[in-house]
Design a protein that fits this description.
Two copies of one chain form a homodimer.
Chain A (H helix, E strand, L loop, with lengths): L4 H8 L3 H8 L3 H8 L5 E3 H11 L3 H4 L7
Chain A binds a DNA duplex through helix 2, helix 3 and strand 1.
Chain lengths: 67, 67
DNA sequence: ACATTATATAATGTACACATTAGATAATGA
DNA sequence: TCATTATCTAATGTGTACATTATATAATGT
């Protein structure tokens, strides 16, 4: 189970930097999330990512949860 | 943004205790998750909850993400 | 009676998400 | 040439998810 942030960014024609600025996380921790080096995530950050990327948690959690 | 675990358990006719046993978390931490006293969740626990409850993350994250 | 289900509280410890500060390289555009 | 975009690394600190151990109460079934 990993996050598909890069794939969604690509679909939207946006960069990691753009999302990083929108989110307001430190770049270090943002990078870990995007590169799936984290084992958990704060609900507020999950929600912020979904809001900014205009997607749902299911969109973020790879094939596993896609209908 | 909070988890709707109790609602889904009710729909399925299952108890918290049943899910607690399936999950294998400590009861203390399990209770905090169910009662939304946590601010983050491990991906492995989110996945386990979805697998056991036969639902997706969108089902767990309240109205906000329901289509 | 006793085991199991179904819930609850409290104390202590570890691992890790995320913050903060401080850098760095390279491309593009004004 | 200089700001901004777009990426990267390293050190140190705080808050908190989750583990562990030890309890407790009450209902239900055997």
């Amino acid at each position: 189970m990993h996050l598909r942030i890069d794939e969604i960014l690509k679909q939207k024609g946006k960069t990691r930097y753009w999302l990083y600025i929108q989110l307001g996380l430190s770049y270090q921790n943002f990078k870990k999330i995007v590169e799936n080096e984290t084992k958990a995530i704060k609900f507020e950050n999950l929600k912020a990512i979904c809001d900014i990327l205009e997607c749902t948690p299911n969109d973020l959690f790879e094939e596993y949860y896609k209908k």
